[in-house]
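ok new one. same drill as before - structure tokens go in, u give me an amino acid for every spot. 355 of them this time. try not to just spam alanines like last time pls lmao
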């Protein structure tokens, strides 16, 4: 019987993943990462629910305290990013640095297991022609989480199972109910555990960043209003600016040096291209010439045709077929060939923006 260590948050997805693998005759071991204090899905309440699940399934449950790692790589990363005028995406960073890597290391070192599993909606395929593991969208496109998993390296993809990648979310709920899992009717968690724990991203940031009033200005530097901290704003934002204008205005840049929020019309909030750093080529090796693909610049954004131009030092340039609205530094850009994740990285400061 093959061992698999399943990451458990206490929610319906990870609970059902564990039950599915147990029904497939795996020797299942539950593992919960203690990330932070509070009621986030990965934390206090989640640990209790995960422990109850393991008791119900009759499997061991391990809790690994990695709060220091989470503080350094996620909380500090977010706070530093927002204070610099960017909008960081913590989930892909968390998956790579905080979750999958430590889970696999702990499984190998302490549990004599070299396979891990999670409740993510994604699929993995091994391509014998390229010798690479490919990351593929989930069957349930509405729940697909490959956007957040683009940064996983080949050694992780070779060692992970996604039991929910081949089923619909409705099937997950059905299986959980059939197995009489306590999480079967548990409400959906928010996408970001920090928001769930603190009530809102604003509330979380205000714990770490002192609001500092500054000017809201147009492209010519004309003062249009006041803000209470650039960390409360993001590129493309329209609501909550508190200024009156003849036409709708959007945040087009955040100037951390002068503490200014810069606004303009929708056209000025669009970009024909952007550069990407910290690029990870997933399902293919880094190409030596430009490739065609479809890119998502946010989790829920519609994939749009682009040309991806590889650059030196793990960077790339993306040229959109049609200029895109709200291209946001700090967010991930993930490019696909159909259902296959080719690569992804973090959007850098945009051309013409003020750092």
């Amino acid at each position: 019987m093959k061992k698999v260590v399943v990451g458990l948050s206490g929610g319906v997805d990870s609970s059902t993943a564990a039950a599915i693998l147990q029904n497939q005759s795996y020797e299942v071991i539950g593992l919960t990462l203690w990330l932070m204090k509070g009621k986030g899905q990965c934390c206090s309440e989640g640990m209790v629910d995960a422990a109850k699940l393991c008791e119900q399934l009759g499997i061991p449950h391990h809790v690994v305290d990695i709060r220091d790692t989470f503080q350094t790589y996620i909380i500090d990363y977010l706070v530093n990013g927002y204070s610099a005028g960017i909008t960081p995406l913590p989930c892909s960073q968390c998956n790579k640095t905080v979750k999958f890597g430590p889970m696999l290391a702990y499984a190998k070192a302490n549990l004599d297991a070299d396979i891990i599993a999670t409740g993510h909606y994604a699929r993995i395929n091994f391509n014998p022609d390229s010798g690479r593991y490919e990351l593929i969208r989930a069957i349930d496109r509405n729940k697909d989480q490959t956007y957040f998993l683009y940064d996983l390296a080949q050694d992780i993809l070779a060692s992970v199972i996604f039991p929910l990648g081949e089923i619909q979310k409705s099937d997950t709920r059905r299986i959980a109910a059939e197995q009489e899992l306590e999480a079967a009717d548990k409400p959906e968690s928010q996408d970001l555990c920090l928001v769930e724990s603190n009530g809102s991203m604003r509330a979380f940031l205000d714990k770490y960043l002192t609001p500092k009033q500054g000017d809201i200005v147009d492209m010519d530097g004309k003062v249009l209003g006041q803000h209470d901290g650039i960390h409360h704003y993001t590129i493309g934002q329209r609501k909550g600016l508190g200024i009156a204008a003849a036409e709708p205005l959007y945040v087009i840049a955040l100037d951390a040096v002068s503490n200014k929020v810069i606004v303009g019309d929708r056209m000025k909030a669009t970009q024909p291209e952007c550069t990407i750093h910290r690029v990870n080529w997933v399902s293919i090796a880094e190409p030596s010439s430009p490739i065609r693909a479809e890119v998502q610049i946010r989790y829920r954004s519609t994939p749009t045709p682009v040309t991806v131009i590889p650059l030196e030092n793990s960077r790339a340039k993306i040229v959109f077929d049609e200029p895109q609205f709200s291209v946001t530094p700090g967010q991930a850009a993930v490019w696909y060939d159909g259902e296959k994740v080719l690569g992804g990285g973090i959007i850098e400061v945009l051309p013409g923006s003020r750092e």
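The domain at 211-264 is CATH 2.30.30.280 (SH3 type barrels.). and btw The first strand starts at residue 3 and ends at 7.
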